[in-house]
Inverse folding.
């Protein structure tokens, strides 16, 4: 169900939510967080769809704030509940004129009481998310440099202004790769990694972050190998004294092949992560990701300097 509210206020929207709960039995007691989404109008529906899917694992209230459009000062809104909102309540705020100058004042009356706040920019993000009005009130701030024109340049700006609680979906997209690599290193005989080769789209931010993570923590040289038409990471090779660990996912496949030095071969389902998958991954933790912060601010600049 979608309810349109024209020339409204945040307090009237909150009253409408109360009325909906009284009439339909929808309650906020099961919501675990408030997800603030700062989006261009063109990104709204894709972001809401991803948030709806994420809400099935992380029940939340979703508040979307769009860029202010020209016109007389005012606020239009839309409330979505039921089948149009997944396991969440979705509130779209569309300010006009000067009403968009203070987005924090628009969302404050709509926040769930005593619940964590996460702010997500599905498109272009500010250089310093923690200094944005909606970033300052959040425990976690999620950006997505893959949606920017120059991901590496955007990562560099985020590194310059990084604050605890910041993260990027490029890091979440590499989580399964990091887990499989860590698992392979936990197997005997525990010989050191002498070199690392990462194949795929060498402009993809997840590949760069993965390479920086491996180089920084394993103290091994990293080589990036471009693969034609690769959408993301297609393979990782760990060069070790007792033999190489080879992980390969062909461009046209969703199956990752893992060849161990012992001759053991594994097959793992590893499809490309969707926007919703990545958002779900990031919402699993609300505390600062210290490893991401270290990789972004220390490891990535070192890798870029080495590859230059």
């Amino acid at each position: 169900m979608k309810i349109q509210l024209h020339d409204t206020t945040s307090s009237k929207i909150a009253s409408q939510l109360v009325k909906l709960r009284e009439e339909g039995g929808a309650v906020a007691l099961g919501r675990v967080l408030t997800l603030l989404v700062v989006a261009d109008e063109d990104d709204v529906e894709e972001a809401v769809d991803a948030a709806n899917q994420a809400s099935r694992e992380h029940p939340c209230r979703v508040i979307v704030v769009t860029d202010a459009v020209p016109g007389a000062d005012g606020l239009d809104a839309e409330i979505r509940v039921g089948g149009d909102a997944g396991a969440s309540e979705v509130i779209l705020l569309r300010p006009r004129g000067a009403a968009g100058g203070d987005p924090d004042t628009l969302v404050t009356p709509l926040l769930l009481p005593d619940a964590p706040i996460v702010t997500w920019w599905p498109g272009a993000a500010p250089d310093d998310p923690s200094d944005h009005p909606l970033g300052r009130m959040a425990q976690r701030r999620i950006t997505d440099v893959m949606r920017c024109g120059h991901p590496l340049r955007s990562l560099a700006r985020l590194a310059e202004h990084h604050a605890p609680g910041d993260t990027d979906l490029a890091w979440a997209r590499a989580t399964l790769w990091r887990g499989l690599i860590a698992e392979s290193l936990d197997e005997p005989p525990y010989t050191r990694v002498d070199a690392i080769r990462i194949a795929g789209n060498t402009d993809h931010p997840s590949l760069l972050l993965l390479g920086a993570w491996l180089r920084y923590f394993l103290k091994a040289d990293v080589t990036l190998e471009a693969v034609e038409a690769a959408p993301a990471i297609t393979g990782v090779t760990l060069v070790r004294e007792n033999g190489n660990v080879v992980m390969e996912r062909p461009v046209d496949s969703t199956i990752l092949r893992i060849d161990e030095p012992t001759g053991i071969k594994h097959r793992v389902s590893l499809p490309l992560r969707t926007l919703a998958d990545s958002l779900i991954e990031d919402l699993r933790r609300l505390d600062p990701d210290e490893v991401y912060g270290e990789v972004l601010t220390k490891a990535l600049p070192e890798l870029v300097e080495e590859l230059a």
The chain is about 35% helix and 25% strand. Residues 290-307 form the longest helix (18 residues). The two ends are 53 Å apart (CA to CA). The chain has a mean pLDDT of 92.
